[in-house]
Structure to design on (82 residues):
């Protein structure tokens, strides 16, 4: 029984680390950083914290499509060696 518990404990840490290495997770983190940057900039302009939700909606409406296109092009260029 002890071996089963040790295996379960070891497997609990592994999926977390594996997830952090996926391209999907890395894209999520990069997008989140852009939203937080947008939140900071817009909060500075407004003179108060606009909040994450407002920044998220504003960033998605204004910049997400172009940002994703830029990320895709950057990834393609770096993979191609150009």
């Amino acid at each position: 029984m002890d071996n089963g518990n040790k295996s379960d404990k070891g497997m609990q840490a592994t999926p977390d680390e594996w997830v952090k290495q996926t391209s999907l997770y890395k894209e999520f983190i990069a997008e989140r950083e852009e939203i937080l940057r947008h939140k900071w900039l817009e909060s500075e302009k407004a003179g108060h914290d606009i909040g994450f939700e407002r920044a998220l909606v504003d960033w998605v409406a204004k910049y997400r499509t172009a940002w994703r296109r830029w990320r895709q092009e950057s990834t393609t260029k770096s993979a191609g060696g150009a």
